[in-house]
What we know:
Elements: H1 5-32, H2 37-43, H3 47-70, H4 80-107, H5 113-146
Helix pairs in contact: 1-2, 1-3, 1-5, 3-4, 4-5
Amino acid sequence: MPKNKFQDVIFTAIMATIMVYGMIVYNVALNMGGVYATTFKAALHEMPVMVPIAFVLEFFVVGKLARKLAFTVMKPDDRPQFITYAISICICCIMCPIMSFIATMLFKDTKNFATFIQTWGMNFPMAILYQMFYCGPLVRLIFRLIFREKNK
């Protein structure tokens, strides 16, 4: 995937934006009691705060930690797609509680440990499924379209 720092910044920015928007839509829908046309617009309200936080966390801290964790169960010569899946799962396992905590403190009416645990518990299954089956493949497709490699 990304082959240099510039590409890594672009990939992380696209991933953070799409992942955060999807998770905000999910949380707004939970708060509204369903998905309505206004859900998607309401989700945009939190984007200017949550996307930069997610980008900074993932780019500078979580991405590196997730790779180290993934390679405790993967070997460098394993199939690249399985390495990608392992890293994606590790990123979700680290980012979900952190982002759930930040969202609880910034956007929830009740800001306590129980609300954080409930938010994390509700977000984690969605984050894993959304990352593995929708967001991750979509972002990798977009990235490949932007950074097409020329045939040799």
